[in-house]
Amino acid sequence: MRVSILSALTLLFRALASAAPAPVPQEAVSTTTLPDGATTVLPVVASTNTSVASDQLDDLASFAADYTNSTFNEASSKQKRGGCTLSNLSIRREWGTLSATEQEAYTKAALCLQAKQAKTPSSLIPGAKSRFDDFVGTHINQTMTIHYTGTFLAWHRYFTWSYEQALRNECGYTGTQPYWNWGKTAETGVESSPIFDGSATSMSGNGAYVAGEGNVVLGGNGLPDLLLPRGSGGGCVTSGPFKDMKVNLGPVSLGLTNGTSESNGDGLSYNPRCLKRDLTTAVNQKYANATAIVNQILKPKDVYDFQMTMQGYPGSGNIGVHGGGHYTIGGDPGRDLFVSPGDPVFYLHHGMIDRTWWIWQTLDIQERTGAQGISGTGTFLDSPPSANTTLDTVIDLGYAAGPPVTMRDLMSTTSGPFCYIYL
Ligand SMILES: [Cu+2]
C-alpha cells in the first residue's frame, strides 16, 4: 500500500468493520515516508482482535517490501550493496501461497539433503550422517552461544540462509526458503493448515496420538514453573514427505509431557529414531497469534527488548513468538532447544522469525541494521559472562556451511551478501 489516502481509508474501514458490537477506538496509525518519497500508513498499536492484527501484520510486511524496493530506485544506495538488485532479489513466501509443485520441490530437496553424506567428520560428531545433520550438529554444538546472546537473530538468519543455499546448490532446488506465518495457524488450527495437514504437499503432519500425556514444564534455575499443555499427537509422524525420516542426533534437553526432560549425553552420538510431533494449537494461540506478532514488531524500541520479547523474558510467563512456534510443533526434536533443527519445519519457523526481525529493522533501518541493532554477549543470558557482541563478532557455522562471516554482513537482508525479502 503506497497511496496514503487509500491506505488510511482501508485502515479506517477495517477499524469500523471490527467495531460492530460496541464502539472501539479507531486504530492508531502513523504516516511514514519511503526513500522514494511515497508515503504509507502504518499501525502503531497492535489490535487485540486477531483478525484485525493479521491485517496489520500484512500492512507492516508490505511496508517493509515497499521500503526495500524503494531503496533500489535510489542510484546512490546501489554502491553500498553487494550486488543485490531488483533483478536478482529473491522473495521468500508463506508456505500456503506456494503451488503444490513448489511445495513438493521444497520437501524433495530437504529429503535430498537427508540422503547426502555429511561433511562433518565422524570423529567430531559421530551421529551426523547426512548433510541435513551437519546443520543439526552445528546447532547442538553452539546452542549455548546463540540463544539469549547478541548473535541470536543474526546467527539464525545466516543458518536459515545457508540451509536454503544448500537446498539450492546441492539438491537442485530452484525456489526460496518458505516461512510459517504463526498468525494464520493460530486462526485455523495448526493440524488442518497447509504446513501440517499431513498431505503430500505439506511439511508432514501430526504425530500419532499418544494417550496419557501431561504437561510440559518449563522453568528451573530458580524460575517459576511454566506449564504448557500437551498437543494432539505426541508419537511418530505418520503421513506426508517426512513420515519415514530418521532423527539421528540428540536428544540433549528434550521437554517431555510428564514434566521431566530427556538427554542422550551431548546428543552427538548416533541415535536414529522417528520424527515425533505433538501439534499444540493452544500454544500457538497463546504465544504466537497475530496480536502477539504485531506487538513483537511495534512495542520494542531497541534490539534488547526485541530479542528478549521474542525469546521470552525468563520468569515472565511468556515464551515469546520464538518459543511459541517451537512448542507448537512439540514432540522430538521439536521441544529440544539444542536439536530442534532436526525437524525440517524448523526452517519455516525461523523464516518467520527472520521475517519478523526484517520488518522490525525496516521500521528504523539505519539504527537497527547498524551497531545499535546489536545487544548482548556471546553466552546464554551472559552466563558465564563474556564479551559484548559487535559488528566484528564472527559467526561460524562449522561444517554445515561456510565461510565464517562477521555480524556486519548479517544485519541486512539486502545490503550485504544476502539479497532477499519476504512477502
Ligand atoms: Cu536455535
From TrEMBL:
Domain Tyrosinase copper-binding as annotated: residue spans: 147-164, 343-354
Gene Ontology molecular function terms on file: metal ion binding; oxidoreductase activity
Metal-binding in keyword set: yes
Keywords: Metal-binding, Signal
Listed InterPro entries: Di-copper_centre_dom_sf, Tyrosinase/Hemocyanin, Tyrosinase_Cu-bd
Keyword 4Fe-4S: no
SUPFAM superfamilies linked: Di-copper centre-containing domain (SSF48056)
Signal peptide: 1-19
Protein name: Tyrosinase
Organism per entry: Mytilinidion resinicola
Lineage: Eukaryota, Fungi, Dikarya, Ascomycota, Pezizomycotina
